[in-house]
Amino acid sequence: MLKHRLATAIFAIAIGEILFFCDLGSPMFYFGLGLSTIVYLIVEFFGAYFIGLNFHLKSLNYLDKNKNKIALTFDDGPSQPQTLKVLEALKKHGVKATFFVIGKNIKGNETILQQIINEGHSIGSHSFSHHFWIDMWGKSKLEEDILESLNAIRLVTGKDVKIIRPPYGVTTPNFRSVFRKLKLQSVGWNVRSYDTAAKEMNKVLNRVLSKTKSGSIILLHDKPDFIPELLDKLIPALKQKNFEFVSIS
Ligand SMILES: [Zn+2]
């Protein structure tokens, strides 16, 4: 059973118990009702926020933990010149990665998108708009947005994308039903670099190095200025630990 459904079932049972055992309108009734609702909302919030919990839908958050394969993933591109610099670094080190692109960023960067494919990397959707409130949208608006991203990628590369990373890694029941309808596999991560919030490259480097294990999917962005330099240090260090880099497809 999905954790979201389990939480909702427990919440419904709790409400049922309160209605059965407490006098309607009594302080105990309101206390029980309030407490159950607050606990349920907190559980739902964490479930939506942490993609690795597989609360609302099942995401691929890591690869086979018994193999030494790991995956570098880059969100929020394509952009100039950062995506090009990231591609250059990956090429230099002979590493394949996965790019979760924002549909609206493709216009004007079509050649970069094609270059990603030509150089053997994988592409996934990261929605069209990456709208701040996308997780609040209804099913049809969400489906429209995601379809627009898939069409934008297909128009340039001729490829049908099968993987998606929800913006901000937030998942909801609407994401679950739209992904199911469009036959998309959600991809999360189990190593978060916090690269977009970082002031120092070395902190990101040390965090990723210490957290990466067999099967790790590492979340990065082809956005911060230091990413190409980070890759120059990170990739050789991970290779030295015998990890093999793969793209997700
Ligand atoms: Zn993003």
Protein described:
The protein is of the alpha/beta class. It has two domains: 47 residues; 177 residues, Glycoside hydrolase/deacetylase (TIM Barrel, Alpha-Beta Barrel). Helix content is 46%, strand content 11%. The chain is built from eight helices and eight strands. The strands form two sheets. Strands 1, 2, 3, 6, 7 and 8 form a six-stranded parallel beta sheet that branches. A two-stranded parallel sheet has the order 4-5. Strand 6, helix 7 and strand 7 form a beta-alpha-beta unit. The protein binds zinc ion (ZN).
Please give the radius of gyration in angstroms.
Answer: 21 Å
Oligomeric organization of the protein chains? single chain
Helix content: 40-55%
**What characteristic shape results from the CA principal axes?**
globular
Number of DSSP strands? 8
How many H/I helical runs?
8
Bound molecules: zinc ion
Instruction: Please give the domain count.
Output: 2
